[in-house]
Design goal:
With 265 residues, the protein is an alpha+beta fold. It has helices at 9-25, 33-39, 44-56, 73-82, 88-103, 146-153, 157-174, 180-193, 235-257; strands at residues 60-62, 69-71, 106-113, 116-123, 139-141, 196-199, 206-214, 220-229. Helix 2 crosses helix 3 (44-56).
Length: 265
C-alpha cells in the first residue's frame, strides 16, 4: 500500500517506484489505470498524474489500443546499464535451456531480493501446454512459489523465522492460504528430499519442482524451478527432473565459486 496524502518529494518518488514495480509484475498483459490506483490505494488523479510523468520520461508506456500501461523503453536501457559484470542470470541461462530441453516444461529462475523472490528468467520447453505461473519481473513474498521455497529450505531456521515474521501481514492480505505451518511443513520435506516439490495453490492442477543455488559463501541466492501439469511431475519423472536440476545447480555453483562477491553484486 502507498499512502495517498500530501507530502514530500520522497513520497512522490516512492509512489512512482511502486507504480513501476506493480506494472513490472504484470507487464505481459499490462495494467489498467483502475487496477493500479486500487492496488496501491492511491487516488485516481494522483495515479494518473504520476503515470503521465513516467510516460513522458519513457519509464512507462501506454498502449494506444487497450489503454493499458507497460514498462517503457527507458527501463530496458537502464537495466542494461545496471547489469553487473557477471550477472547470475547469464550464468544460469544456458542451464535453464538444458532443463527445459530435457523436461519439455517451463523453467524459471527466481533470485532472493530481500524478503521477496524475484523472477529474473524463464525458458519454455517443447511440451504444448505451457504453464506460466510467473512472468519475468514478477516479485512475490519469499514465502510463495517453488523457487522461493527451495531458497528458504536452504536457509537457517532463524532466517526462515525472520522472513515469516516480516512477511506475515503481506501474506494474510494477498496470500492467505500460505500459512507459516504450511511453509514449515514444505521446508522440512524439501530438506529431507534434497529438493522442493510444491503444489501451486494459485493454479489448481499445477505442480513445481525446485532446487536452490548457493553462492561462494554457501548462502542460497536463487532457485530454479520447473512448473507443469501435476500429472507430469509424479514418481520417476519428478525424481529424474530433480536430479537433472541438482546437477545443473552444482555446475552453476562451481562457476559462482570462481567469482568474487563483487562480481555478483
Amino acid at each position: 500500500m502507498v499512502t495517498d496524502r500530501p507530502g514530500s518529494g520522497v513520497q512522490t518518488i516512492q509512489r512512482a517506484a511502486a507504480l513501476i514495480r506493480t506494472i513490472g509484475t504484470h507487464n505481459r498483459l499490462g495494467m489498467r489505470l483502475v487496477d493500479l490506483y486500487r492496488t496501491l490505494e492511491l487516488e485516481r488523479p494522483t495515479a494518473h498524474r504520476l503515470l503521465q510523468g513516467l510516460v513522458s520520461e519513457g519509464l512507462v508506456r501506454q498502449d494506444a489500443q487497450n489503454k493499458r500501461y507497460y514498462l517503457g523503453p527507458m527501463i530496458y536501457e537502464l537495466g542494461l546499464a545496471a547489469t553487473p559484470k557477471h550477472p547470475l542470470r547469464d550464468i544460469c541461462h544456458r542451464y535453464l535451456h538444458t532443463i527445459a530441453k530435457h523436461t519439455g516444461d517451463t523453467v524459471f529462475l527466481t533470485v532472493r531480493a530481500g524478503l521477496d523472490g524475484l523472477c529474473v528468467d524463464r525458458v519454455e520447453g517443447a511440451f504444448p501446454i505451457k504453464v506460466f505461473v510467473l512472468e519475468v519481473g514478477k516479485r512475490r513474498p519469499l514465502n510463495v512459489g517453488g523457487g522461493a521455497l527451495a531458497i528458504m529450505s536452504a536457509m537457517p531456521d532463524v532466517e526462515v523465522d525472520r522472513v515469516c515474521h516480516a512477511n506475515s501481514e503481506r501474506l494474510s492480505k494477498r496470500y492467505p492460504r500460505y500459512t507459516d505451518a504450511v511453509l514449515l511443513e514444505k521446508i522440512a520435506a524439501a530438506r529431507q528430499r534434497g529438493y522442493a516439490l510444491n503444489e501451486v495453490l494459485e493454479v489448481p492442477g499445477v505442480r513445481s519442482v525446485a532446487v536452490a543455488i548457493r553462492d561462494g559463501r554457501e548462502r542460497p541466492v536463487a532457485g530454479i524451478s520447473v512448473a507443469t501439469l501435476a500429472g507430469r511431475l509424479q514418481g520417476d519423472r519428478a525424481t529424474d527432473a530433480a536430479e537433472l536440476m541438482l546437477k545443473c545447480a552444482s555446475l552453476i555453483q562451481d562457476e559462482l565459486q570462481r567469482l568474487s562477491p563483487e562480481d555478483l553484486a
